[in-house]
Known about the structure:
Strand order of the largest sheet: 1-3-2-4-5-7-6
Order of helices and strands: HHHHHHHHEHEHEHHEHHEHEEHHHH
Distance between the termini: 68 Å
Radius of gyration: 28 Å
Amino acid sequence: MVDLAAERDRRLWQSFSVVGLCLGTLFFAASLTPSLLPRAYFVQGILSGVSLAVGYGLGVFFVWLWRYLELPEPRHSSRYYGKWAMALLCAAVAVFFLWKAAAWQNSIRALMELEPVDTAHPVRVGGMALFLFLLLFGLGRGLKRLFLFLSGQLKRFVPRRVAYVLGFVLVGLLLASLVDRVLLRYALRVADSTYEELDALFEDGIEQPSDGSKAGGPGSLIGWDTLGRTGRSFIVEGPRAEDIAAFTGRGALEPMRVYVGLRSAETVDERARLALDELKRIGAFDRSVMVVVAPTGTGWVDPEGADTLEYLHDGDTAMVAQQYSYLTSWLSLLIEPSYGAEAAHALFREVYAHWKTLPKDGRPKLYLYGLSLGALSSEQSAELFDVLADPFQGALWAGPPFNSRLWSAITRDRNPGSPAWLPRFRDGSVVRFTSQENALDIPGARWGPLRIVYLQYASDPVVFFDPLSWYRRPTWLSGERGPDVSTELRWYPIVTFLQLALDMGLATTAPLGHGHLYAPEHYIDAWMAVTAPSGWNPADLSRLKAALAR
C-alpha cells in the first residue's frame, strides 16, 4: 500500500510541468505587487491563486505547442534534476515576494490615508493561493483527459495534428457553453431576483412624504410602493429648505426630486412620460436649475452629487431620475449596458421636448448628471444633432466607465503632454477634467455655452480598467502618476489585467475620495464649474466642503 502511494505521488510529481511551475510562480509573484486599490489578505489569496493557475496553464500550453511542433527536448535525466532545482528556486521567489507584499500594500494605503499594515499575512495568502491553485489544477487535469479522449477518437478519422486541434476546439466550446449557459445564466437569474427582492424592501426611517409636492406623496402620479428602495431613499433623504437656509444664512426653497421606479410603469417610454407629468404637476419647470439624472445600475443616485448641487443653488433645483435595472453597476455594465442608455435617452427626450417649448428667459437651465454606469448612459442620452439648435447647458459625469465612447474619444485625443488620468482637451471651452485637486481653472481658457466636466480619480478601476492590458501597458501608467496611484505599480502581461478586473469588482471598497467613491468636496468644485451658482466665495465653499465631508 505504501509503495502504491509512493508510486502515485512520484507520478503526480513527474506530471507537473516545470515550465508551468516557473511561469505560474512569476505570475504569482507579480500578483502580489500593488494595483489601483489596497487588498485584504483573503482577496490577495484569491488573486494570487488564480494568477498561479493561469501562469501554470500557459506554461503547460507552451510545452504542448513545443511538442506539437516536434522541437527538440532536453534529456530525461537533465529534466529530472532541473525540475527539483527549479522547484526550489520557485519556492524562494514566492517566499521573497510574499515578504515584500506588506510594503507594496502600504505604498497604496499611505496615498489613501489608511493605517499601514504590519503584515500581509503571507502564510494565509500562500495557503489560500495554493488551495485555489490545486482546485483549478484538478479542473485542468479533468479537461486535459477530456481533450485526450476526444482527440483520440478523432484520430480514427483525421490526421493526428488535426485531431489535436479539433479536440482543443471542442473542449473550449464545451467549457464556454458550460460557463455561459449554466453558470453565468443561473448566477444572473439568482442575482437579478435577489436584487429585485432587495429593491422592494422598505427601509426603517424611510417614510412616505406627507407633502403633496413630493413624488410618491399625496396626489402624486407615482405610487410610493413602486419607487423601489433606492427611489424612496432619493426622494426622502437629502437637505431640506431649512437645512440649506441654516447653513447659508439666505432664504432657500425645498429641493424638488422626482423618481420613477421599474414598477411605476410597464415600459421605458411610459416611465419617461410619467416622470415628465410628475415634473409638471409639482411645478419643477419653474425652478432655476433642472438636472436629468442617470442613476447607477441598481437605480441609486449618489447623495454626494445630489446634495451638493442643492446646497449650491439654495434648493432652487429639480432633479429627475428613472430606474432601469436591479443589478449593481458592474453587473449591468457587463450584461445589460444598453438598458441604461435606452432609459436615459427616453427620459431626456421627454424632458427636453417640453423644456425647449418654454420661453428661454423663463425656463430652468438644463443639465445632465450621472455616476458610474449612469455617466455612460447619460453620455448617450442626448443626440448631438437633436440639441444643436437649442442646447442644454452642461453635464457632470463622475467615474465614467472605461467603455464610455465619448470619454474614450476625448481621452484618446487629449492635448499632448496631459496625462491620461487628467486630460486636457483642446481649448477647454467645452470639456474639462478634474480629480481630487481642482483642475478646472485652466489659465487662459474660457467656458463656452455648453460646459461638460468629468470627475474621475486616477485610482478608479471602473474608469481605468483596460481590457487590452493583458498584452499592452495602459496609457495611464506612462508618465506622471495620479495622486493616489502607487509609484510601485508596474505593468505585467496578463497579471495586470487580472489585478484590474478584481479591482473593478471591489471599486467601492476604497475610502471616500478614492477608487469609485466620490467625495462631496470634489463634487462641489465640479458643480461650481458646470452650473456657476452665484453668492459663493472661497471661504463659504471651504466651509461647505468641510460640513459635507463630515
